[in-house]
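During the reporting period the student researcher (J.K.) took over the structure-prediction task from the postdoctoral fellow and processed the backlog of single-chain submissions. One of the processed entries is reproduced below for the supervisory committee.
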Amino acid sequence: MTHLIEITRDDSRTLRHPDHAETYHSTFGAVTESRHVFIDRSGFALSLHSADRRIVLEFGLGTGLNFLLAADAAITNGVQLSYTAVESRQVDSQTVRLLEYQQWLRTPGLAMRYCQWLDGATDQIDPLLSLEIVANWTDLTTPGSGNVDFVFHDAFSPANNPDGWTSELLQFESRQLKSGGIFVTYAARRDLSNKLQLAGLQARRIPGPPGKRQMTIAIKK
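J.K. obtained the following structure tokens:
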């Protein structure tokens, strides 16, 4: 599968999917969008100041950008990060290298070690990190664990990936979250908010990143 690399408005790079021409991250700024939605407005970055461990479940690992930004923030704050990602079509390490994400990270060599881990050349990205990637959410080893702090929902849009936004999947994600846990996504559709409410989450729309008026955040009741 060959991706087209695009330089976005903040000079960071993203990929355009070869099948449906949707980009993995915003053309208004790939790193800006990822940091805004999943690191800052989710409350993840702030939570690192009051914890020694955080557990994240991501749906749609894609290029690994959200993982790298979260890992960078965790390492910088000396916090252990347990990260599980669901991705049916993993972007290969050679393509990830071409995105040059290291320049956006504070932790030396983090992006390189992530690529080495993808290649199977190392068992550990960093002593503070654990990463698991599964192809399907039904393959998760601890379904319904209820101990996840944050769910990063970063699937392709409902128009191109309707299976990534079903009520069944959103209810599954809700069951993974602990009480007070956070679900966050770039999307802000009304039907999404309704599905999240039915899944037991208190959803609200908040200001989105550049180029997108709103995004969605939801808290486990």
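The committee noted the following: The mean pLDDT is 95.
J.K. will present the remaining backlog at the next meeting.
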